[in-house]
Design brief:
The strands form 2 sheets. Strands 7-6-5-4-8 form a 5-stranded antiparallel beta sheet. Strands 1-2-3 form a 3-stranded mixed beta sheet, covered by helices on one side. It has about 160 residues and is α+β, with helices and mostly antiparallel strands.
């Protein structure tokens, strides 16, 4: 799911994040190679406040300055995971059982590479998803990207 560079950045941030009471949901590197954007998605007990984002932006920025992940300039964005929260770890897939998820794979699984359905959990090295009434086991190591499929109720 993560590139080698994204994994190394995540590993560099996780110890500090734990001590700060923040979960690094995922890290993404996007944009041009000459001036990439590093996106750090965080979560915290009780949600992510503006103050939490500012504090995390500060220490992540200091850490990035220390490890200097790219020659030249880069942009740093720290945000909450949002309504379409990325799912990265087996624990994420367990935590959000019952929610609707969208999973894309690197290659075909049962003839498909895109799945959307009810998240049933994680077992035996695979994400369990109920798609069109059928339970599908998607091997974890084949997943390219997975996200919750957020919905908004406008009737309230």
């Amino acid at each position: 799911m993560l590139t080698g560079k994204e994994k190394s950045l995540l590993e560099a941030m996780e110890p500090r994040a734990a001590s700060e009471g923040v979960e690094i949901v995922t890290v993404e590197i996007a944009g041009a190679k000459r001036a990439p954007t590093i996106r750090v998605f965080i979560d915290a007990e009780g949600g992510v406040s503006f103050d939490e984002l500012a504090r995390t932006q500060a220490w992540v920025g200091e850490l990035m300055d220390e490890i200097d992940p790219f020659p030249g300039a880069y942009m740093l964005e720290v945000s909450s995971p949002g309504i379409d929260r990325p799912l990265r770890t087996p624990e994420h897939f367990q935590r959000f059982v019952g929610e609707t998820a969208s999973v894309k794979t690197r290659g075909p699984v049962d003839g498909r590479s895109s799945f959307t359905g009810e998240l049933l959990g994680f077992a035996d090295g695979a994400v369990q998803l109920k798609v069109d009434g059928e339970v599908v086991a998607i091997p974890y190591d084949t997943i390219k990207r997975a996200r919750l499929k957020g919905s908004v109720d406008f009737s309230a």
